[in-house]
Design brief:
six-stranded parallel sheet, 365 residues, six-stranded mixed sheet, 13 helices, Rossmann fold, alpha/beta
């Protein structure tokens, strides 16, 4: 039996109240103070993970009780200490590898310091997140009858670990690309790297809204703690892959723009009769790709640091994708704001996009 663990944390303070009903009576500021002092907890026991190769694994969700906002605003040393203690909890339970979820993979040096302070392997899961996001983009483009080879692609949060890897790999296939983030220097360095690797010369900007307005495909993977992509940013027929947690795309997009396709990147089916012991809003037997990477490495017996730091290699993405197929993990269709994307929905989006384009043309005459 192989063993793994995965660190989770509440994205918002309301998530704590949902898990612990007694906390609902407490003001948010008080609750933030309480969880800041709490040790890591064993949130659930994961059973039933079974590879196509016959290997079985069990694991644990370990709760690191800080919200996304706290992780970005509290002193980095304090946050890292909480994450390290959660990883040590995983080690005590018998895990051979621990995955870092959501903002625990973002803080500091993206897992390097955590790995240096525990006796088991560590991964952020970002390699498989990239692999499944790209697979989802190509799948969604096929459904929407969008030619990836001719598409204009924008990557929001392009200088981050996941964003830069997505941009570098997508640049092999797309018509044009815009990179958007906060640092012009880092954007220009990434653009130069992509030009050297692929021959494609991306545009760069710090204006995220402007970067989206003419894009056929948008990859949203910023470290913002709240939604940033608004309905007004997107053109009819746009495909938006939201890889970020918390999500980057405002719920207003789902409500106001029935002519664009938004889907959550990195949702996969896990092989076996898996029971996560915890409801995180997905259908049974499905999980985030970052969680799945930890399971894949455990099933493979690869108890070694895998995806760490901010410079993901294309080779790692290709390797984890191959291992995922070998063990029976696969993309779980497309989901958008907690709902499965159906063929009827896709058809409606395409019809609405065509109508919106016609109205735009008529209005310009």
């Amino acid at each position: 039996m192989e063993r793994f663990a995965f660190i989770i944390h509440p994205l918002e303070i309301e998530d704590v109240a949902r898990k612990f009903p007694s906390a609902r009576r407490m003001p948010a500021s008080w609750l933030e103070t309480v969880i800041r002092r709490c040790p890591p907890i064993k949130a659930s026991h994961i059973t039933g993970v079974r590879s196509l190769q016959g290997t079985e694994a069990e694991g644990w969700f370990i709760g690191c009780l800080l919200t996304a906002k706290q992780m970005m605003e509290l002193p980095e040393e304090e946050v890292l200490d909480k994450i390290i203690k959660a990883a040590r909890k995983a080690e005590q339970l018998g895990a051979g590898i621990v995955g870092l979820g959501a903002f625990t993979a973002v803080v500091g040096d993206a897992g390097v310091t955590v790995a240096d302070n525990v006796g088991i392997a560590v991964t952020t899961g970002n390699s498989y997140t990239v692999a499944t996001a790209l697979e989802g983009i190509h799948y969604a483009a096929g459904l929407m009858e969008v030619s990836v080879e001719n598409a204009s692609v924008t990557v929001l949060g392009a200088t981050g670990s996941i964003g830069s890897a997505c941009a570098r790999i997508l640049a092999r296939d797309v018509g044009s690309m815009t990179l958007a983030a906060r640092s012009v220097d880092r954007l220009e360095a990434l653009a130069d790297r992509i030009k050297t690797e692929t021959g494609l010369g991306p545009q760069v900007t710090t204006d995220l809204a402007a970067a989206c307005r003419e894009a056929d495909i948008v990859v949203a993977v910023t470290s913002a703690t709240g939604a940033i992509v608004e309905p007004e940013w997107l053109k009819p027929g746009a495909i938006v892959c939201d890889v970020a947690r918390p999500r980057n795309v405002s719920r207003r997009v789902a409500e106001a723009r029935r002519d664009v396709l938004v889907f959550e990147g990195g949702v996969v089916e896990v092989p076996g009769d898996v029971d996560f012991g915890l409801d995180f809003g997905f259908p049974a037997k499905t999980a985030y790709a970052c969680m799945a990477e930890t399971m894949i490495l455990a099933l493979e017996g690869r108890y070694e640091n895998f995806t760490l730091g901010r410079d993901l290699s294309v080779e790692q993405v290709d390797e984890i994708s191959r291992l995922a197929t070998r063990h029976g993990f696969r993309l779980a269709g497309l989901r958008s704001f907690e709902r499965a994307v159906s063929p009827e929905w896709i058809q409606q989006v395409k019809e609405n996009a065509s109508k919106a384009r016609r109205e735009t043309i008529a209005g310009g005459i």
